[in-house]
Amino acid sequence: MLVLTDWLARAINRMAETRKVYLDHSATTPADPRVVEAMLPYLTEKFGNASSVHSFGQEARAAVDRARREVAALIGARANEIVFVSGGTEANNLALRGITDASQTRKNLSNGSSTKKGHVITTSIEHSSVRGISDELEKRGWDITRLPAYEEGIVRIEDVRAALRSDTVLISVMLANNEIGTLQPISEIGALVREERSQGRQLWFHCDAVQAAGRIPLDTEALGCDLLSLSAHKLYAPKGTGALFVRRGVRLVSQNVGGHQEREKRAGTEGVPGIVAFGMAAKLAREELAERSEHERQLRDRFEAGVTERIEDVVFNGDRARRLPNLSNISFRFIEGEGLLISLDLQGVAVSTGSACSSGTLEPSPVIQALGRNDELARGAIRFSFGKDNTAEEVDYVLEVLARVVEKLRQVSPLNKVSSMTKIAEGLHSR
Amino acid sequence: MYSKTFKDHIANPRNAGELPDANAVSEEINPVCGDRLRLMLRIRHQQIEAAAFLAYGCPPTLVCGSMLTELLTGKTVDEAMLLTRSQLVAAVGGLPSRKQHAAALAIETLRSAIESGCSDLLKQGKE
Questions:
Q1: In this predicted complex, what is the ipTM?
Q2: What is the pTM (predicted TM-score) of this model?
Q3: A188, A423, B35, B115: which could join A157 in a potential S-S bond, CB 3.0 to 4.6 Å?
Q4: pLDDT per position as a tens digit, B93-122
């Protein structure tokens, strides 16, 4: 009997060791089996090039058009306002570069060869793709205003209004932040842009909705944006496909040339299987949105209540009311995020530190720093992002592992004592 | 990305915590990334009897601290001073190039700990 109990205990331990819980749905999601099923025929028997005139091509074209309608329906747009691209980063590139290039072309036509560029408004908490393009535009002579997000991680409409200049051509603000999930005042900015445009201004509004799509309802009309970026792999479809919504009448310069695809906005043979998958994923996201977001919200709230109850010295990052339902970003004092990430990974729990693209650098998360957090809190920030297939039981397992790992890492950390010593030293200096 | 030894040390750090009767102590900070390592040694008759560490920073900093305490225990001061960064990197099963700074911080902390300890011991005439 004793031997059997011992064997059972060891078997349970082994199961616990190999257990995997994925809480990194903001980085990517697994493809839904229904999405894979819809996509597979387009890799084999329905392999045509959507630009071909023959029946193989027409079959692919029809599938791309169906997918376009589904993606449009997810965001309350018209099908002909959807441009398929390779992902969120390309969508953001096409939006920012396409609009600024178009504005430059207009200026050159009216003033001859003008060296004066113009002004772009963005925020200090954008995804690295928008940050990267803004930095590049700045090097090319554009003026960039990066709006603050304050402690709550949300930009303020009055700052947008105050930043507007007569030569502002583009405002780019994300809908939901990728690290802390905070929701930005997109409808208010959209209304402001429309008001400005009604006075004859050439001003456009881009919104990166990569993290928001499929997690909260989206309606381009209500948001008032002219361009909106989407990525398929955040919606339970495979990686490699995204879309840019371009409102009818908005002119942008294509960044890919050499083909007529996507209404001249993105040259290159359409990735039909990925697009079909995106279409199915968008359809499922629209149909199951309320159910998914309620489920994820319940898991997230259960998780945060558990963290508050079990672990001391934690700081929740970003406004806790105005944010995505599936995301929680927490700084654990006295320890560093990467150590926590690897320790959790050894227990089968996948989370993320900083944004996925920037882990690997030694820099603390610029988003958490933009909230005014010090280096220690910025380095100790961890993102937990829940998905439709997570369970309450998984949350309880993660809480148990997390409490243990945090305790262990804190035992190794010299920061607790050092910080109190630093405080004493600072006190002495200030006298 | 990391070796089995590395993962073992991150999951079960060796000699973590304060060493109350340490007589050679140093705490070094990497100014670029803010990583911090505190090393505590108890040296008797030129031999390291016990070693302990505390660390804040990326996992390689924690693991290098942990491994260092294992490598040092039982070594003479002279032997410890000969320990190199590449030996430490090899002991943890290798580090990615962008994480080599963790081993450099550990070796720097080791040398300054021994130097501080030796000068204190000499001052007290106990050497």
A1: 0.89
A2: 0.90
A3: A188
A4: 999 888 888 999 999 999 999 998 776 666
Angstrom distances, CA of residue A222 to CA of A60, A190, A194, A289 = 32, 8, 12, 18
- Phi first, then psi, for residue A110 (nearest 5°) are -85, -30
Indicate the burial class of B117 (C-beta count within 10 angstroms; 0-12, 13-18, 19 or more): buried
Put simply, the answer to whether A362 touches B32 (Cβ < 8 Å) is: yes
Q: Which of B17, B32, B58 sits opposite A336 (nearest CB)?
A: B58
**For residue A245, is it left (φ>0), alpha (ψ between -120 and 50) or beta?**
beta
Alpha-carbon gap, residue B127 to B112, rounded angstroms:
18
Closest CA to B38 of B60, B17, B24, B55: B55
Picking from A237, A292, A296, A200, the residue whose alpha carbon sits closest to that of residue A87 is: A237
- Which amino acid appears at position B33 of this protein? C
CA distance B54 to chain A (A): 5
| Per-residue CA distances from A252 to A43, A113, A123, A138 (Å) | 32, 19, 22, 19
Q: State the count of interchain CB pairs (< 8 A) between A and B.
A: 53
Neighbours of B56 (CB within 10 A): 28
Contact (CB<8Å) B2/A360: no
C-alpha atoms less than 13 angstroms from C-alpha of A337 in its C-beta half-sphere: 29
Please give the structure tokens belonging to residue A158. 């009055």
